[in-house]
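CO-FOLDING WORKSHEET

Operator: S.A.
Ligand of interest: flavin mononucleotide
Run index: 223
Mode: holo prediction, single chain
Checklist:
[x] sequence pasted
[x] SMILES validated
[ ] output reviewed
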Amino acid sequence: MARFSTPREVFFFLTHPRFWFRRHLRLEEMLDDPLKQFHKWYEQIERSSLLEFPNGMCLSTLGQDGYPQGRMVLMKECDAAGVVFYTNSNSQKGQALEHHPRASATFYWGAFQRQVRFQGDIERLSGSESDAYFMSRPRRSQLGAWASAQSERIDSRESLEKRVAELEREYADKPIPRPPYWNGYRIKPRSVEFWQLGLNRLHDRIRYVRSPEGDWKKERLSP
Ligand SMILES: Cc1cc2nc3c(=O)[nH]c(=O)nc-3n(C[C@H](O)[C@H](O)[C@H](O)COP(=O)(O)O)c2cc1C
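OUTPUT RECEIVED:
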């Protein structure tokens, strides 16, 4: 039963009908496999069409200077092995992952007041896997991948657009191959945490941790 302490909380509750029937997260109802649990939430969120980028996640890496670095990337796949995204391996994040092949990815679905955090080791996808995804992209995006030396300083926007125009001429009527520096990466999770907003700051947090044998153990954390 919901208990309110301020008029703002009453307003919040009444204006968010999807909370009316929402229950607290119960440890025993969370699926044993966090990737399956993630899919369950993700499908619900994607189906709602309330978010422009439900697959947007903040990817955090560790820079060689020892400082953490966060930025948004798009999840392109999530299967039993982990969460996949694509990027330029020469970029800041690409270099960070080369030196510290570990990362965290955090999804926040504001309209649902839910967050999921993955943490794990990174593996690069094979060339053929990255090729397959690159080939599925629109031509303009493929050209963009060639034109952009991601995270490098450039003189102007015009120089970037000029480079795209040159590439357009170069590849006219030809398939555009994947740049060798454009790759897919998979975060193989060692822990996954699900968070759901609760009233009066009493949020639900359920964390899964993978044992060395590969089984998942779940536990409730204090908000
Ligand atoms: C919603 C959103 C999705 C993005 N998706 C990607 C992506 O999938 N891959 C990518 O390389 N950059 C993506 N970006 C751009 C990155 O946030 C970032 O600017 C870029 O990758 C350079 O990061 P870096 O210098 O830390 O390597 C996205 C940005 C936003 C806001």
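REVIEW:
Residues 34-48 form the longest helix (15 residues).
The radius of gyration is 21 Å.
[x] output reviewed
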